[in-house]
């Protein structure tokens, strides 16, 4: 079954590089078998339990339909194959992705395959593999199709033919449109993109290269698919792919410096911006984690934040151009929260800027592309400055809660020229060491995302496990609990803190996102988006407000906000607040409907069939004077 190696092997796309750091490359082992699936054809083969199958789009933008059957059941005369409906139901999503819910099931709800890696993230588990009827109805009788191709290669293996096969359609770019119809477009996959799966039973597998050449499903031209099978003895990390830009090299999801501990405390991880981060922890749970932060102290992994060091004589001038704050007012040792905007005023990102020296800054934000934007603006403006990505060399945890200062006082040492932990002011940072003058070096900032007194600790990845363990040991008598992303989301909504994709996007300016205080229109230097922001501030159309919801029924991001039949806004974030014993929300509404105590309704179902009463209230809902975070 070994076919010749593909022509693109000389520049193997499966040697995944990350900013030319050899330690982050993934090198695939020698496969047991390489199977070339020619354009518009299919192949069938056996796969042993534990083995890995890699379905590769050789030239890009080519769909590959996959079937798998329990081999032992086939030998007994029973046909149990992948069932997309069961799989979607059990996964709770359109198709499984690497992580906790990664398995494909048959109609008995028995797992057959598990997704291990995926470099595309856009597939289909709704549509049939293409059929003769589809082409006949389009005026192409006799056209090659995946279902007939599957019938031909599976019949010798004891599988009965079907007119149309329910398949897992890798790389097929489908989507449900607002009207409810199933739409499709060209695949997202690039040459060499793949899905890697592990067999959970002995299987009979069939893989096709889709024959469709009459619409964009395969970019109008069917091409080859390649299958590689790897021995069960190999170990592959679970990962999804990330690209800084569409044409950038693939980068797989990576663990943080704290994974050696957090992976022993939970299996519930999410891929957040290219890092595996915990959602909640076994033995605690979201609500317990939330209360620990509100009443005692909690620790969380925030490594996925992007960090960029900006150094050189023009560092201040570059930042003055690209952020909305006035960098001239930022002192060494101080941190400031800022927005980054496009020329039209829409937000690109938000983040914090640390001033480490006269010409040395660190920008901590959410997106890789923000660092790219900094580099582009530095080049375009001729700034004498270096922009370095420090994301992989600086991992961080947050220690948050009323007892966070007490905890850190037990484990941190600072030089006489630095403030002690008791002296560190809000939005200030310092250099420190763990345990004593020769301990692990840290940067400690009095910042956070919870609305509580809190700190963030930044370290080299090699020091991550020691840092977590020391914090955990010192925090145990104080009631320390590890905190996951689900609890963090509850905390930040109560505290009125903005989240990308919810409170802001590139169609939303800082005023509409509720962070207009970050826009320093008084600063003398021009900055990107200034003219647009001046106009938007003078003539606002929408405003972020707090809502009190007169119901315990769940309200979600994107739910419409109404007055009568008119939709006047939308929910950006909502939470059932334990500390307030009420459901609260952030919403972006028309300025005409933004006055305090304005009566509104949240629309559900189609927006009209069900309404939940609400009224406009001040936000933050929790600690509006920020007395706790400033304490």
Automatic annotation (TrEMBL):
Keywords: Methyltransferase, Transferase. GO terms for molecular function: methyltransferase activity. GO terms for biological process: methylation. It comes from the Bacteria. SUPFAM superfamilies: Aminomethyltransferase beta-barrel domain (SSF101790), Folate-binding domain (SSF103025). Residues 37-204 form the DUF1989 domain. GO terms for cellular component: cytosol. Pfam families: DUF1989 (PF09347), GCV_T (PF01571), GCV_T_C (PF08669). Residues 268-523 form the GCVT N-terminal domain. InterPro entries: DUF1989, GcvT/YgfZ/DmdA, GcvT/YgfZ_C, GcvT_C, GCVT_N, TrmE/GcvT-like. Residues 542-623 form the Aminomethyltransferase C-terminal domain. This is Aminomethyltransferase. It comes from Parazoarcus communis.
């Amino acid at each position: 079954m070994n076919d010749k190696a593909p022509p693109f092997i000389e520049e193997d796309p499966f040697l995944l590089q990350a900013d030319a750091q050899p330690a982050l490359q993934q090198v695939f082992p020698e496969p047991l078998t390489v199977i070339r699936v020619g354009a518009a054809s299919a192949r069938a083969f056996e796969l042993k339990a534990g083995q890995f199958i890699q379905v590769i789009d050789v030239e890009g933008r080519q769909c590959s339909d996959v079937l798998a059957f329990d081999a032992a059941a086939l030998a007994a005369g029973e046909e149990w194959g992948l069932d997309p409906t069961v799989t979607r139901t059990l996964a709770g999503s359109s198709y499984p992705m690497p992580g906790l819910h990664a398995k494909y099931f048959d109609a008995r709800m028995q797992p057959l395959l598990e997704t291990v890696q995926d470099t595309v993230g856009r597939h289909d588990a709704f549509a049939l593999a293409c059929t003769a009827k589809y082409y006949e109805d389009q005026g192409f009788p006799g056209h090659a199709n995946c279902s007939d191709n599957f019938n031909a290669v599976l019949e010798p293996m004891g599988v009965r033919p079907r007119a149309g096969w329910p398949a897992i359609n890798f790389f097929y770019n489908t989507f449900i449109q607002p009207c409810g119809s199933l739409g499709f477009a060209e695949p997202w996959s690039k040459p060499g993109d793949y899905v890697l799966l592990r067999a959970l039973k002995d299987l009979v597998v069939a893989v096709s290269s889709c024959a469709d050449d009459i619409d964009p499903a395969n970019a109008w031209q069917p091409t080859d698919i390649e299958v590689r099978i790897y021995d069960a003895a190999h170990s592959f990390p679970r990962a999804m792919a990330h690209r800084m830009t569409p044409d950038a090299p693939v980068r797989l999801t990576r663990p943080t410096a704290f994974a050696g501990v957090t992976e022993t405390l939970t299996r519930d991880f999410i891929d957040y911006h290219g890092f595996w981060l915990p959602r909640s922890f076994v033995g605690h749970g979201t609500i317990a984690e939330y209360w620990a932060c509100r009443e005692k102290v909690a620790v969380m992994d925030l490594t996925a934040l992007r960090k960029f060091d900006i150094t050189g004589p023009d560092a201040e001038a570059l930042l003055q151009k690209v952020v909305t704050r006035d960098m001239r007012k930022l002192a060494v040792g101080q941190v400031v929260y800022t927005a980054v905007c496009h020329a039209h005023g829409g937000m690109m990102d938000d983040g914090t800027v640390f001033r480490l020296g006269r010409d040395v800054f660190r920008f901590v934000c959410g997106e890789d592309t923000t660092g790219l934007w900094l580099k582009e603006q530095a080049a375009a403006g001729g700034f004498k400055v270096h922009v370095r990505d420090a994301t992989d060399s600086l991992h961080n945890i947050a220690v948050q809660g009323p007892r966070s200062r007490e905890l850190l006082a037990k484990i941190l040492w600072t030089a006489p020229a630095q403030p002690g932990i008791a002296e560190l002011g809000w939005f200030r940072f310092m250099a420190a060491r763990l345990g004593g003058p020769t301990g692990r070096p840290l940067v400690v900032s009095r910042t956070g995302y919870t609305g509580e007194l809190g700190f963030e600790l930044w370290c080299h990845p090699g020091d991550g496990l020691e840092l977590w363990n020391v914090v955990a040991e010192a925090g145990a008598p104080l009631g320390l609990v590890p905190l996951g992303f689900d609890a963090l989301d509850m905390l930040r909504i109560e505290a009125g803190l903005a989240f990308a994709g919810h409170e802001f996007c590139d169609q939303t300016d800082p005023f509409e996102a509720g962070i207009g205080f970050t826009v320093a229109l008084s600063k003398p230097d021009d900055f990107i988006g200034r003219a647009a922001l001046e106009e938007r501030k003078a003539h606002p159309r929408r405003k972020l407000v707090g809502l009190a919801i007169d119901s315990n029924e769940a309200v979600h991001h994107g739910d419409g906000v109404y007055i009568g039949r008119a939709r006047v806004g939308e929910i950006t974030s909502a939470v059932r607040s334990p500390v307030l014993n009420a459901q609260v929300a952030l919403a972006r509404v028309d300025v005409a409907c933004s006055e305090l105590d304005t009566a509104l309704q949240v629309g559900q179902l189609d927006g009209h069939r069900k309404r939940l009463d609400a009224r406009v209230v001040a936000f933050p809902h929790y600690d509006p004077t920020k007395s706790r975070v400033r304490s």
